[in-house]
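Methods — Computational structure assignment.
A single polypeptide chain was analysed. Its primary sequence is given first, followed by the predicted tertiary structure written as structure tokens.
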Amino acid sequence: MTCAVTLAACGGADEEQADDPGMEAAAQLHDAQPLNVGDVTLLPESSEAGTYSELVTVKYSEEVRASTELDKPECMDAANRWGDLESVRDAPASVAAYEWSEGNVSHILVQLDEESAAEALSVEPPETCAEYTATYEDGSSSDYGVTDLDVPPVGDESRSFGIQVSDDDGENHMYTVMYRNGGLLGTTSVMGPGEAEDYEQLLVDFSEAAVKRQDQML
């Protein structure tokens, strides 16, 4: 599965960004990430913090995106189109990866103002992106499907969606809750082979725990 369409499915790297002016605020966000929710446990070595556009995870996603061709170009980075907003790219952010026996869990936290967070949350892929095909630099390809999820609301407002990826290795899924907590923008994502109902409770429990910790720490 590529980062070209689903950033949150890819682990970051714990790298210092000494020249990053947003590092202090990003470090505070990082400290506000949940340490564990149930049997989902933080992996510090696979997590990072800094200005959003300078994160290793984001830069890698952009590199893969640049070398990927879609049959529907408007669907490039469909799940993370909000990440192209200038307010997001310049903002302090934290990407945390978690260990879980049932799949891969990640949580992105971006510090914005309420208006910018609401704007980012409202950015959705075009209806034509319900199905599309991506062809990568090595000639391999994947078929993608994007659907809305019916998950209870989280924070001040939220939306949820699922991405199905099919290729020669089989089928995989990523399910995401994207929410706003005041001026904070958060995304909780779970990637694994199961169906939505297998992960819905974790998505809600983790996101609610994340909001609670943010309110305590920030």
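Note: Residues 196-217 form the longest helix (22 residues).
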